[in-house]
Design brief:
2 helices; 5-stranded antiparallel beta sheet; two-stranded antiparallel sheet; 8% helix; single chain; OB fold (Dihydrolipoamide Acetyltransferase, E2P); mainly beta
Amino acid sequence: MISFDDFAKVEMKVGTILEVEEIEGSEKLLKLRVNLGEERPRQILSGIKKWYKTEKLVGKQFVFVTNLEPRMMMGLESQGMIMAVGDTNPILLKPASKVSPGSKVR
C-alpha cells in the first residue's frame, strides 16, 4: 500500500504521438516522439512492438507518466512511460475524446 500523498506525486498527462520508429536490434521496443504540450516533444521508449504497428500509433493520443527519472534502454534515453492495461495483450490507455496535448490526468 502507498499513501495518497505518494500517489499524488505521479504525474500523468495525455500526449499525442508524432513519430514512431523501430529500434534496431530490439524485438520489443518502439521509440515514440510525443507531444506533451511542452516546448519540445519527448522521446519515450516502450516495449509494445509485438502488439502495435508503428503507423497505427502516429497521431493518436494516450496517457503517459511524465515525471519518471529518465532511463537508458538500448543506448537511448526514455523520458516517460506510456500507460497500458494487461500483461499478455496490453491495451494502451487513451482519453475518450481528443484533448489538448499535456492535459493532466486527475
